[in-house]
Fold this sequence. Notes:
- By secondary structure, chain A is α/β, with parallel strands linked by helices.
- Chain A has 2 domains: about 5-140, no CATH class; about 155-285, no CATH class.
- Chain A is built from 8 helices and 5 strands.
- Chain A has a 5-stranded mixed sheet.
- Chain A is globular, with a radius of gyration of 19 Å.
- The longest helix of chain B has 19 residues, at about 75-95.
- The interface between A and B is large, with 40 and 32 residues.
- Bound molecules: iron/sulfur cluster (2 copies) and FE2/S2 (inorganic) cluster.
Amino acid sequence: MATSFKQIEENLKNEARKLLEDQKVSLVLAYGRGYDENHPVPFVAKIAADVENIVFNEYCTANMARYLVRYPRGTKMAVAVKPADSRAVVQLIQEDKVKREDVILLGIPVIGMKNSKTGEVIDSKTTCGLYNPVLYDVLLGEEIHGQPVVSPYDVLAQYEAMDKDARFAFWQKEFDKCIRCYACRKACPMCYCDPCFIDQNKPKWGEKSPQSHGNLMYHLTRFHHLAGRCIDCGECSRACPVDIPLYLFHKKVARECEEMFGQAAGKSIQDKPVLVNFRVDDSDKILE
Amino acid sequence: MSFEPKILGIACNWCTYTGADLAGTTRLQYPQNLRVVRVMCSSRINPSFIFRAFQLGADGVLVGGCHPGDCHYNTGNLYARRRLAVTKKILEFSGMEPGRFRVEWISASEGNKFAEVVTEFTEQIKNLGPQTKFKIVK
Lengths: 288, 138
Ligand code: SF4
Ligand code: SF4
Ligand code: FES
């Protein structure tokens, strides 16, 4: 049985209070109340009194690992992580963006998170589909077992079946909707570059106004930069105001990387990100 | 008029570019559709170069590097191999014809391989016809 959201919220508050009172951390990254129940917002508790404002419910989809890189190195932080979010922390540790000893992961096993825009349940179609965090220091609910195992890549079949022209038309239509608000990169825990390549002027990699070729350049390059690093939280797609299914492309690249290099992103802090690594016996077949 | 494709070649200084030189000095014939840009190593190639080349009107992109194990910087092409494999998959999933992008390992002594690869690749691009998907229309 999964622990109830109310109970998780209680446990989260208690842990956060303890950590802040004992000065084990200087901040706790969690969720706070938004304008209504269905729209909780990212929230940072810095003193014990802040803890009262923490909430947790099925709409707390934001990936709080996103905020770890905003604080100076060495800041002691605790972060509330759902399964995919814990993978983001692992990936950030692999990339030496945060140190393992500087973060305390408050793990949350979950089932039945919901998209606050549509009310739909979030499952392996739009996220990595795990139920338990891959890394945690404290677990705020009971581990979830006995759920059917569904591959997060199943959803790709229908797009892979399209012929290339249909696929190009599909993506062109999607990318043409993009208004270049950059909510996708803001929501993404792995998008921490400053400046982002698309904001550079010398060289200017692509048009900055929302025109179709600039959009194509932005998205293809972003997919590339996230290759082997995207942990499939699906937050980019949920953040997108025009509902571009970015997660599909990210899943596709993730699957290819997993097949070619035998490693999925954010699973173990011992791993090295696949694109800053190689094996002498990598096959030339991958280039075919 | 027959279609004469524009092909961007990106060749590493130490092997493929030198191989191209050898093809030249031994007077080997190959199609003139390839425009070669020299980089110091295949790992210098930012995947965005490739996306950008297609946007700016390339019909095909050919990348050349040293054979794995022979890179002047020891491991550059081993990183490049992984990276460019991902580039290839991204192009493919976006709907681009996969045949428009190719990576070949050509050493400094393989002038004939250089000429063969260019001939064959040019032929392939001719068959695919003009690249219109990424090309920016003004
Ligand atoms: S690219 Fe999207 S799904 Fe992947 S880690 Fe970033 S926000 Fe999550
Ligand atoms: S969030 Fe959506 S609209 Fe905004 S830049 Fe990203 S893809 Fe484009
Ligand atoms: S120098 Fe030729 S591939 Fe590195």
